[in-house]
UniProtKB/TrEMBL annotation:
The name this protein goes by in its record: Contactin associated protein-like 5a
Lipid bilayer topology: Single-pass type I membrane protein
Native organism: Knipowitschia caucasica (Caucasian dwarf goby)
UniProt family annotation: Belongs to the neurexin family.
Major subcellular site: membrane
Amino acid sequence: MRDIVCGYSCSSALISALPQSSFQSSSQSSYSYGPQQAKINRRDGAGGWSPMVTDREPWLQLDLRERMEVTALSTQGRANSEDWVSRYMLLYSDTGQAWKQYRQEDGVGSFEGNTNAEGVVQNRLSQPVRTRFLRLVPVDWNRSGWIGLRLEIYGCSYKSDVADFDGRSALLYRFNQKSMSTVKDVISLRFKSRQAEGVLLHGEGQRGDYITLELHRGKLALYLNLDDTRLRFSGGRVAVTVGSLLDDQHWHTVVMERFNRQVNLTVDAHSQHFTTRGQGDSLEVDYELSFGGIPLPGKPGTFLRKNFHGCIENLYYNGINIVDLAKRRKPQIYSVGNVTFSCSRPQLTACSFVSSSSSYLSLPAPAPSSSSAMGGFSVRFQFRTWNQEGLLLGAHLNPDPHRLELSISNSRLVLSLHSAGHKAQATAGHRVNDGLWHSVSLDSRNLQISLGLDSEPPSTIDQWEQLHSRGSFYFGGCPVSGCRNPTISFQGCMRLISINGQPISLQHVQQGLLGNYNELLFDTCSIRDRCLPNLCEHKGRCLQTWGSFSCDCSGTGYSGATCHNSIYESSCEAYKLMGSSSGFYSIDPDGSGPLGPTQVHCNMTEERVWTVLSHNSTEAVRVQGSSVLQPHIMDLNYSASSDQLRAIVAGSEHCQQEVVYSCRKSRLFNTKDGRPLSYWLDQSGERRSYWGGFLPGVQQCSCSLEENCVDMNYFCNCDADADTWSNDSGVLSYKEHLPVSRLVVGDTDRSGSEAVYRIGPLRCYGDKSLWNSASFYQDSSYLHFPPLQSELSTDVSFFFKTSSTSGVFLENMGVSHFIRIELSSPSVVTFSFDVGNGPMVLSVKSHLPLNDRQWHQVRAERSVKEALLQVDQLPLRFLEAPPNGHTRLRLSSQLFVGGTSSRQRGFLGCIRTLVINGVTLDLEERAKLAPGVSPGCPGYCSGSSSLCHNRGRCIEKSSGFACDCSQSAYGGPSCKEEVSVSFERESSVTFTFQEPFSVMQNRSSQASVWREREREGSRAREDMAFSFVTSHSPAMLLSVCTFSQQYIAVILARNGSLQIWYQLQSDRAPDVFSPVLRSLADGRLHRIRLHREGLDLYVQLDQDVHRKYRLSSDSELVLIRSLTLGKVMRTEGFPEEVVQAGARGFVGCLSSVQFNHVAPLKAALLNRGSSLVTIRGPVVQSNCGALADTISSNNLLDQTSTSSQDTDQRDSQSDVALIAGVVTAVSFITVCVLAVVTRLLYRRQSQRGEPGHHKDKQQQQQRSSEEPAFRTELHLHHAMRDSIKEYYI
């Protein structure tokens, strides 16, 4: 706010000297309660203004007699009374006709008022208002009394130089020389416009430079070219746009600042910074600049259509006051057309329809004009809105029962003529809900009703007889008694209403002299652009209606109400904890931060989880002919950006990169002065000349560190400059320098000199954030960090374990704002905050105590749209933000973790993995210096080693630990053992979900399902994984169906190829994907993982097939009914190919089936009597997955060891491979022999059964005769089945 202008204060009292005529009001209880009594601290009359109790829309208006700069206002209740205003809106206007609501920085359109009659409450304006008229509209008041008001306005006088342009005029500023070339420009002005199009400024030069400021569709567009020949000849001019709804007939401030190619463009409080294209730094304009329009329609190079129609004031070009020069008729200024120097009063006044259910305007139909010989009726008006639906006009017609409706439906105009049992329609327009003014004409003549929209050709409906209006026309809606079939009321603005050629006075309507209305605001169009600024993060698309906005997060990689949360995990380590296997994954190293996701390869075949990032040069490169002056240069481009690489490296425990360098007569260092002849650049572009190990700054190779160089006189083998091949390969492991961004080779220009190099991918392991923890053992202890700098959105996640009954996890305070997360009772976690709308509280209550000394996860988020809280897998709780409330969280004190600033209610226990807005707080480092806090957490489950696998949860015990495998598809002591089941032709396992629920969250009712779905429409997500072995096709592997006619089916086609079917919208054809064309019905174990995020479907098959597909819809599965493994009994809605696969069922082995957080196969084995599980046919637990997994692991180890060796060791590798092949073959033959023997023993044991069952046995064997030989293998360890059954925690 500007309090001091040119050395004087802009805070003078402005009301005290005003005459009584400057005060007006909507009504007054009596003369002594009149508006003239509303001066602050005055006790004249009744001691202030009070309206009549019957006043539906009370207001108090001030005329400051001239335009003033207003900076603050104070309010007071009526003296000696119980009357005061507790909240009010402030409107302003230059003319007293067209009003605009003042909004604070965060968009709040009201001010807090008084709490008693005598106290004075002052509100300072964040942005000063230059205006003549002010209007205060009470919103809330003392309900025990009535409205009472006294006030004072503070500010100072305001002077300006104004020019009025009528749409056919302009001002030309001519230079003293032929052209003007500038490297710095500052252009500032204020304008108010009567239309959405128009040129404010234009200039161009012969070399192709140009600058244009114009209004386009209500936004300000800047076109700027600095000697960019590509733009000059291509004809494509790119605009930078700022602002919205700038044709509202109110003043807007524009500032454009340019220095060389850097440009700032600001409209009101919204700014855009950009860099111009091309290489030019100066703007060269010939002869003149034009303001307000382009005077010659055929001027070369122009693409503009309309001149500006409105007023411009304080127009400065590089410090020159253009309007002042024009007023003084200086020769540099040439006026074209009629330019005047006072702003004319606008004649366009509007009204606002503010309620979607009860707003309407009822107007009687004047008699048609005498010129309309054929009778009928005509209606004309203009409207603007953001809503896709709404009733614009309704009327009853003669003869009865004809009825006419004009509405917005699906963003188009629809005219409907209803008669007895018939309905005729005409449509017009496209996206009429774009916030712009649209002109509508409706005429009935010559047995036709025509609908006109803007400049489009009219649409018509034919009539059998001439229709006439009967009764009133209803605009925007209608009363209950006036509508036979009520529709959604219109929310928006209307103006220029005329019926039968006669204009309608909205002032007469407001005064009760004409028609009737409900829920209308007069003399103002209160539309606002809720997408300016765009509060959707990460390039989310903002969509809006009259009262709210929403975010379309499709394709962003983020989800949530404002696209704040990353849909990807932060590391490969996190994916492994979810139970994932090796493959390509998208990781988001900073979570909800600005970096975005990147694809990496996660290698989970070892104890450590490796993150592998490849680059563009993975093959060996041979170098010859390079020198120090003309070196060979290889720039490495990685699959991630430099910022993402830095984040991944910083968050890893260890990183390394292999550099294989072979040389012949090619040195790495100059032996004379030690200068490097070859070197590499690190992630920051710094030159590095060490070639192995983790000691930076030492010009050595690995052989020197290991003391095994060929010639110990040198630190590198290549520096011996031998005529034979040498090798200086090494592994770079100083992670602050990784990855290698460029390699420079400079000594291969001598005869016989050459080098061969290969740079491996960047490989990192360990996630430093996952186990960063601290223990709090005093209730007065805490860790402190800088205050949160996240005004609009904040997300917090962490794990805790405690035995205490309560304690504060996190707290950050401001002057009046705060945010806090705490354990408020043994089973309740509470998230509370205040952004200026009063304290908001969210709580999650667990049915089990949370102070059980086990790890529990907390996730809390607060945005401008909502707040949410989740604990472990308990149902998500969320709270919508109040409409039109404060949105910015302003915090000033330090962030306290594990305690509070008052050192009371501190937390006793452990906190780990505290992540705020994608940044992991280093608890361990802070804990080293804080009393009562120690780094790390005691217990078996607090280390970084993965004690429990595949989503298993580590449970602390008094003497050790146990793994909770209830959320895992695996079993065993550490959730690593496959849970496998063998299926026959008629076998099936169906898991029925307990209630219809959204995939993302199990809800308590269908209503909450739909609310959740609407709130997080872009968070559609499925995660499926399973293994199978079969020799039969077609086959149904897995199917998921919903109550809303959606389904997922994974089948083997007739040829054995894998097919994935997705049907997400019933009105579209299903999506079908085939990752591989070869047959998977080959009797081998295959692992499949499907992962969907919105439109993206990721498919991993075994270890070598990774596919990404794009779905036709990002809809989520709504109201899931069941998941079926094997034969499908209900096939309605499935296509023929899926029906055939479902009818054939599945013969073979399924293991480790996971669908999101459900393990249906495991549930079937453990809950055979449950109503949620239906088992048909023979379903037998087996160990096929474990057996096949062992074979696959051995093969994978062979492949891994083979690929990790150097190329010059291939001969020895082939020998090893031959031996390994022989061993594998012998092992396979032995297994087969055992299988046959076991099968014979099994048959003999069967024959020894009871005679009464012999016939049944034969029938069963006949039904099973088509089953493959691998069935024997499945039961090799049948006798051990009881011992491998797992009883899960």
